[in-house]
Design goal:
The complex is a heterodimer of chains A (194) and B (289). With 194 residues, chain A is mainly alpha-helical. Chain A is built from nine helices and no strands. In chain A, helix 3 packs across helix 5. Chain B is of the alpha+beta class and 289 residues long. Helix content of chain B is 19%, strand content 23%. In chain B, a hairpin with a 2-residue loop joins strand 8 and strand 9. Classes of the chains: A mainly alpha (194), B alpha+beta (289).
Chain lengths: 194, 289
């Protein structure tokens, strides 16, 4: 029940986008609007996914783990929409042009990397894959989410022309979330857990 | 299927609006249509006035329309100085009467890869220039936007220095296409579009067409420009529209005309090559981008 609610909540950004699109309220450049909205939500869901572990600790709510997979998959979902917008509405399936973009434009290289890295994580997000890989290996693989999130923030940072406030805000959030992990890791070290 | 402008804004609405403005505001006697105008359908007024890059009011393109009301455009004067025989401070009311106003429908290509067709009102900048009599040493014209952090509260985080400055070579400034604009769609310029006076240089990327001008200086050397000062590798002094020279971060081969679904090919000099290309004969346009 609660999970369904979270699921629907995660779909709200898309629903709003469709709703506003149907009412022609996406501004003068709807395709740019869709590109930015799907990109923003990819980053937000990535950061939300990364916030689950710190939130469990700090708020003493271990039950939050139940939502982590869903949040991660929504990051992948919005990332895929973002890519589809680029491939279809921006480049109209012009493959050579897209390959040129990935090779030549470093912000696109970073974005492509972020989504590429997310793909195996989405695929192996099921219980079956956790079993097949083994918990330890699965966890190791899924640390790639740090790389994906970092590449996503860099992608945004390299895209803006001069106003870096928004990508900087994402970067600060990411550094805080990764910093939390580094801090708890070094705190745990002396206890000799590993 | 491409969406035609005519489907977006019914022509009758556009014409009605202009009829209404002519009756109500009567700011301009109906300006004559310039032969330099394109016959392409203008981008809807709504889009022209709500999708703007005017970083003094914020870097989101919807922000200038929401915030620019704080700009005080009356009284307004433009200081003309430097290498001219008749330096002076000229009032906006005088500028409005300096030469017959024309409607100039120009394509506008933004460096970001989108474009519009805008029915400007104004006259060639050369009309102003010849009246102040530049000295022979004057080879460039430097422009400076008005800047006031109280009236322009969005400027803080824009990441570029203000006041915004731009420049043209003298022959570019004197080119008949270079427009000193005071209006669009038959009315005074909305503040977000650079009221009360701006220039429009249709064969160059949009950022060259400086808004809300406070100062025009005639100089001997190439003047600094805001975007090339902030990132010289990406934005050059000339910034002529050129589908063959990519912006380092994106291709300039195509553009999205606002209101259209499919992209169209970008034309050299934004389609104004016949009137402008000869000014750059012998110049390597990859070097002087």
């Amino acid at each position: 029940m609660r999970k369904t609610l979270v699921f629907l909540l995660c779909l709200t950004p898309l629903a709003l986008l469709v709703f506003r699109g149907a009412r022609q309220e996406l501004g003068a450049n709807p395709i740019e609007f869709i590109t930015h909205a799907t990109g923003d939500w990819t980053l937000r869901f990535l950061l939300l996914t990364l916030a689950v572990t710190p939130a469990r600790r700090l708020l003493k709510t271990p039950g939050l783990i139940r939502y982590r997979r869903m949040l991660g998959l929504f990051a992948f979902f919005y990332g895929t929409l973002h890519l589809a917008t680029y491939v279809w509405l921006d480049k109209f399936f012009d493959l050579p042009e897209m390959l040129k973009d990935v090779a030549k434009r470093r912000f696109i290289t970073a974005g492509a990397l972020a989504l590429l890295v997310m793909t195996p994580l989405a695929i192996t997000s099921t219980k079956g894959w956790i079993r097949r890989l083994g918990g330890r290996n699965w966890q190791r693989l899924h640390r790639l989410v740090y790389l994906s999130a970092a590449a996503g923030v860099v992608h945004y940072w390299w895209l803006v022309k001069s106003d870096i406030r928004e990508p900087a805000a994402y970067a600060v959030a990411l550094v805080a979330l990764l910093g939390f992990r580094a801090a708890t890791l070094s705190l745990r070290q002396p206890v000799g857990s590993r | 299927m491409p969406i035609r402008h005519s489907e977006v804004t019914p022509r009758s609405v556009y014409l009605n609006r202009r009829g209404f403005l002519a009756g109500a505001a009567a700011k301009f006697a109906t300006p004559g249509k310039s032969p330099l105008s394109t016959t392409e359908t203008p981008t809807p007024y709504q889009d022209v006035t709500t999708y703007n890059n005017f970083y003094e009011f914020g870097t989101d393109k919807s922000q200038p329309a929401q915030r620019a009301h704080t700009l005080i455009t009356s009284p307004w004067s433009v200081t003309i100085e430097g290498l001219v025989a008749r330096p002076r401070i000229i009032d906006i009311d005088e500028i409005l009467k300096l030469a017959p106003l024309e409607e100039r429908i120009y394509r506008m290509r933004c460096v970001e890869g989108w474009s519009m067709v805008i029915p400007w009102v104004g006259f060639s900048l050369s009309e102003l220039i010849k009246r102040v009599e530049p000295l022979s040493k004057a080879r460039y014209v430097a422009f400076e936007s008005f800047y006031n952090s109280k009236q322009m509260p969005g400027a803080g985080g824009a990441g570029i220095p203000f006041p915004y400055v731009e420049g043209l070579r003298m022959d570019e400034a004197l080119n008949p296409l270079t427009l000193l604009s005071v209006g669009l769609y038959g009315d005074l310029l909305p503040k977000q579009n650079g009221a009360p006076v701006r220039i429009v240089v249709p064969w160059k990327y949009g950022f060259k067409s400086i808004k809300s001008i406070a100062r025009i200086r005639f100089v001997e050397k190439e003047p600094p420009t805001t975007w090339s000062r902030s990132n010289a590798r990406e934005y050059g002094f000339y910034s002529n529209v050129n589908p063959k020279v990519d912006h380092p971060r994106w291709s300039q081969a195509k553009e999205r005309r606002i209101g259209e679904f499919f992209k169209r090919d970008t034309l050299p000099f934004n389609g104004y090559g016949a009137q402008t290309a000869s000014m750059y004969d012998g110049m390597d346009l990859r070097k002087y981008y």
